[in-house]
């Protein structure tokens, strides 16, 4: 059951974030190594924004108003895109990537409650995954909210 796997992964990530960042003051959460890099708070906000952007797609699946994007009808393309995206977001990648504009965090200081917001969001994400088990089992292809040409299963 994939939902169990993802729930375990989300719990691990949530616990790691709490251990690492929960006690940091706002100044440390918003500190940037240099102007071209994001702060811890901005990285956390980015994760929330990315994941939340998928919620309308999940809703359309549940209301049966979803239609598979045309690119999603080609299994070999969705597999290739999925592997490419996964490789691009690995922590050990050499080349830095720029995110899509819709997923960029705010530029100013972020409230020190961002870790609490992240924990709340993780629970919402777990619920979204749990209620989507049938779609996961059926390998439903969904597009990226940032670019409809990026569709993965």
Would you spell out the secondary-structure blueprint of this structure?
Elements: H1 2-21, H2 26-29, H3 40-53, H4 55-62, H5 75-88, H6 114-130, H7 133-137, E1 142-143, E2 151-152
Antiparallel strand pairs: 1-2
Helix pairs in contact: 1-6, 3-6
Short description:
The protein is mainly α and 153 residues long.
Protein described:
The chain is mostly helical and 153 residues long. It has one domain. The chain is 54% helix and 3% strand. Helix 1 packs antiparallel against helix 6 (114-130) and helix 3 (40-53) packs parallel to helix 6.
Spatial ordering of strands, largest sheet? 1-2
Range of strand content:
under 5%
Strand runs, count: 2
Order of helices and strands: HHHHHHHEE
Number of helices: 7
The chain-level mean pLDDT equals 89
Q: How far is it from the N-terminal to the C-terminal residue, by CA?
A: 16 Å
Report the major sheet: 2 strands, antiparallel
* Low-confidence spans: none
The radius of gyration over CA amounts to: 17 Å
Going by helix content, strand content and strand pairing, the class is mainly alpha
- Morphology: globular
Helix content: 40-55%
Q: What is the number of independent domains?
A: 1
